[in-house]
């Protein structure tokens, strides 16, 4: 095999609870993660040596700052017997710095793809541990589906898939720095009450999610302060027939879940704000 294409699906957060700031500087989190069909498409091609990253998005770094590059570097460190290198082309479809873990998704997809390309059997534990350092969401992106993530996001518990649901995903053109949102969160408030236990129990029992439970995102206030457009977008979505509307991760992406694909498509087709990225996607199970 000389080349291979892999998909790197984005994630949304159905719930995000910040439990506190740890001594190592990371926040202790409880999150419900869900993969969606919005995905980057990555081409991996063997080459004589070294790693090259190219992308359809010119603003993306192509050097070691790119998480896809870092994942490839780790792959070759884990498999020193390989004498070849790889060219990585990222067709970027996931908005950058938008709260959908685009960079982590690319890193996880490159790691999975390289094992396929070089026809090697992956040692999943080893891979997970070595990738956690490049981004807290990377271990989740290796798994996908509906997952309860804790610690700083790297402790994973697989949950029953919530089923195929249609969503409208809206991202304003404003880019948000995740560390800036957490910093403001720490400055803004004491920790709020969050009945995460009931949310988790609801998802474990395989019934339809009860959106009236405490599905929420603790980063909301901080993200809205940094990017007031989030509120405007939420106001528009709240006036549609959405079953549920939420901020994803540290934002600024907001999504709504609908009972039918038609409803979601109608909302997207008549979206009133000109410069937003708006798309209809569905939830997907593990890959
Ligand atoms: P998270 O929710 O995990 O914090 P995000 O979705 O908000 O992530 P990303 O799109 O992953 O944000 O990008 C965050 C930063 O990572 C950007 O500043 C970007 O330059 C850098 N980055 C490095 N590699 C990539 C990549 N392959 N795709 C996107 N961003 C990348």
TrEMBL record:
In its UniProt entry, the species of origin is given as Halanaerobium kushneri
Describe the task this protein carries out.
Answer: Catalyzes the phosphorylation of the position 2 hydroxy group of 4-diphosphocytidyl-2C-methyl-D-erythritol.
Annotated family: Belongs to the GHMP kinase family. IspE subfamily.
GHMP kinase N-terminal domain location is 66-145
Name the source's superkingdom: Bacteria
Q: Which GO terms describe its biological process?
A: isopentenyl diphosphate biosynthetic process, methylerythritol 4-phosphate pathway; terpenoid biosynthetic process
Could you tell me what this protein is called? 4-diphosphocytidyl-2-C-methyl-D-erythritol kinase
Positions with a binding annotation for ATP: 95-105
Domain GHMP kinase C-terminal, first and last residues per copy:
214-274
A Pfam family per the record? GHMP_kinases_N
- Lineage, highest ranks first: Bacteria, Bacillati, Bacillota, Clostridia, Halanaerobiales
HAMAP family hit by this protein:
IspE
Q: Pathway membership of this protein?
A: Isoprenoid biosynthesis; isopentenyl diphosphate biosynthesis via DXP pathway; isopentenyl diphosphate from 1-deoxy-D-xylulose 5-phosphate: step 3/6
Q: Enzyme class, one word?
A: transferase
Give the reactions, separated by semicolons, that this protein catalyses: 4-CDP-2-C-methyl-D-erythritol + ATP = 4-CDP-2-C-methyl-D-erythritol 2-phosphate + ADP + H(+)
User: What EC number(s) does its UniProt record assign?
Assistant: 2.7.1.148
- Active-site residues, record numbering mapped to chain: 11, 137
Question: Keywords assigned by UniProt?
Answer: ATP-binding, Isoprene biosynthesis, Kinase, Nucleotide-binding, Transferase
The reply to whether Transferase figures as a keyword in the UniProt entry is yes
Q: Which GO terms label this protein's molecular function in UniProt?
A: 4-(cytidine 5'-diphospho)-2-C-methyl-D-erythritol kinase activity; ATP binding
Q: Which InterPro entries match?
A: GHMP_kinase_C_dom, GHMP_kinase_C_sf, GHMP_kinase_N_dom, IspE, Ribosomal_Su5_D2-typ_SF, Ribsml_uS5_D2-typ_fold_subgr
